[in-house]
Amino acid sequence: MSLVHINIFLAFTVSLVGLLMYRSHLMSSLLCLEGMMLSLFVMATMTVLNTHFTLASMMPIILLVFAACEAALGLSLLVMVSNTYGVDHVQNLNLLQC
Amino acid sequence: MFSSLMLVSLLVLTLPIMSSIFNTYKNSTFPHHVKNTISYAFITSLIPTMMFIHSGQETIISNWHWMTMQTLKLSLSFKLDYFSMIFVPVALFVTWSIMEFSLWYMHSDPYITRFFKYLLTFLITMMILVTANNLFQLFIGWEGVGIMSFLLIGWWYGRTDANTAALQAILYNRIGDIGFIMAMAWFLFNTNTWDLQQIFMLDPNLTNLPLLGLLLAATGKSAQFGLHPWLPSAMEGPTPVSALLHSSTMVVAGVFLLIRFHPLMENNKTIQSLTLCLGAITTLFTAICALTQNDIKKIIAFSTSSQLGLMIVTIGINQPYLAFLHICTHAFFKAMLFMCSGSIIHSLNDEQDIRKMGGLFNAMPFTTTSLIIGSLALTGIPFLTGFYSKDLIIETANTSYTNAWALLMTLIATSLTAVYSTRIIFFALLGQPRFLPLTSINENNPFLINSIKRLLIGSVFAGFFISNNIYPTTVPEMTMPTYMKLTALAVTILGFTLALELSLMTHNLKLEHSTSVFKFSNLLGYYPTIMHRLPPLANLSMSQKSASLLLDSIWLENILPKSISQFQMKTSILISTQKGQIKLYFLSFLITLTLSMLLFNLHE
């Protein structure tokens, strides 16, 4: 693979690890989710532009839209946790009742 | 000369209204002008009537061409035939007496000039109704009397009950107007005209629909069963209004309409049966309701309603001329009954409850005389006024091929007429006084005395006078068994004796708790209580539920969004057994991912 692809793949992997392993704040997990989305977006755009696959040039935009929706959902969950406790430390989550 | 005199007498009536822009309106003599105008109009209208009786020639005056809509020509036309020629002098005579009476009754009212203007406007619209030759002009008169009734019932508008009663009158009349307009539309479609002559000439075949419409209109205007509660409620208006509108003139407009259409009705047996049954139900039901009322004006109002039912029964046995005769004779004694009750009410300082009257036999001799003569005329005692129309109706009903049940109802109602008349006389006139000792009983005013005196002479002689001078129309039944001829008299005497016996027997007993029959009769058969609450509630709640609840809140909100969220919340509570150790879960996810990638990539 070319250097650019390795670069972006590495960015994706770093964000993934950061999503799954974090200390206390839920917010960092959400930020890493955004990072994953960003790297995917760049990868998709570059591939489409390099191979001149014009028909698929919608894909990155649609990916962006759906990522925005999921970010909103994640933020609303964060707000709900924060409403109850004031901070978003993950160790609080075992006391949440639906 | 005939036609121009009639037009003059009708025109004279409108003069005081037009003079209201001048200064005479502000005078206190305006009511006297109005009364004099009506007496002149009455005398002027007697001349064409006598010419008509002499020659039997009917006239149609067609004056002013208003508009033509493609094939329909509307013009101002007056039909001066048997019905309108005899009704106009009778109505003017009765109105003259009522105007003079209200000069005494409404003497202390600050807006007496406006009162007289309203009464005069009512009279003009009634004349338009009676002399109309096409349905459009009739409708103008019809609506006019409805509006004036509204204004006059709500004369004392500060009183809530009066406003409610006026609104009730308008609403019930409106339901009748639906029938009228349906009939007008049918006639326009099928006979291309609103002129009575053309309709009768063409003689359409299937006349069920327009005659049903006209029957509905008569039910609304003449307070037949189903649309009757407005008439007793209309007693909220002043007594002259009750005497003029709701006994002699306006409520007979419905009957008059059916009489006008008698050439169509005599060919339609179905409508005749319907009319007969409706009239029989009305006359019996309202007579039952009159038995236990405590307000003297309401008893007389129910008596009017019962007599109207009798007129409708007469139309149902195909005797329009008899019904018309009953209209004319009924006007005299009913107006006089109302005026006597007005005299009693004013003398006892506005007391209308018969349980608080008594002993007026000696205190008010003139009113007593006229009340008793009026009641006797109402029940059809031989050779007073009511006899000439009422007895003929009962005889004809007995000897005609008609519905036996309707006939039985009518006979029972005739005896009940005697019963409630006895009730009025017993409670108001006989016995010891039950009113407060400080009284202002006074019958000295010449306005009161003269007006009642005129109607008294009318109540005694008018039946004889009219029925001897009109030309014969339908042949009355000449031969019948003796018991049939005496039926009306027998049931009336039965009613009188029964009522008198019961009243005397129970006069000093303690008042027991009301039986259910008493409550049925006193609350007007529960009809207003049910019909004024249940249908409006059902309609409004159904419309509210279907519009806002069904469409908005169920379809748009509840079906998908809220139901999904409810479902999710319930099931997630049900099946979640997690403890919230998120970092552990994420870590296991990462290790699994790494392991799988290593395994599958280092495979080759």
Give a nutshell description of this structure:
Chain A has 98 residues and is mainly α.
* Cα end-to-end separation of chain A: 47 Å
Helical coverage of chain A, percent range: over 70%
Q: Strand sequence of the main sheet of chain B, in spatial order? A: 1-2
β-strand amount of chain B: under 5%
Number of extended strands of chain A: 0
| Count of individual domains of chain A | 1
Helix content bin of chain B: over 70%
Structural class of chain A: mainly alpha
Kindly report the greatest chain-chain contact and the residue count on each side: A-B, 13 and 14 residues
For the biggest sheet of chain A, the summary is:
none
Integer count of domains of chain B? 1
Looking at the structure, what is the overall shape of chain A? elongated
Order of helices and strands of chain A: HHH
Number of extended strands of chain B? 2
CATH class of chain A: Mainly Alpha
- Please give the largest β-sheet of chain B: 2 strands, antiparallel
CATH architecture annotation of chain A: Orthogonal Bundle
Family (chain A): Belongs to the complex I subunit 4L family.
Subcellular location (chain A): Mitochondrion inner membrane
Organism (chain A): Equus caballus (Horse)
EC number (chain A): 7.1.1.2
Describe the protein's architecture and organization.
The complex is a heterodimer of chains A (98) and B (604). Helix content of chain A is 71%, strand content 0%. In chain A, helix 2 (26-50) runs antiparallel to helix 3 (59-85). Chain A contains three helices and no strands. The termini of chain A are far apart. Chain B has 604 residues and is mainly α. Chain B has one domain (1-510). In chain B, 73% of the residues lie in helices and 3% in strands. Chain B has 26 helices and two strands. In chain B, strands 1-2 form a two-stranded antiparallel sheet. The longest helix of chain B is centred in the last third of the chain and has 42 residues, at 534-575. Chain B is elongated and about 135 Å long. The chains are: A mainly alpha (98), B mainly alpha (604). The interface between A and B is medium-sized, with 13 and 14 residues.
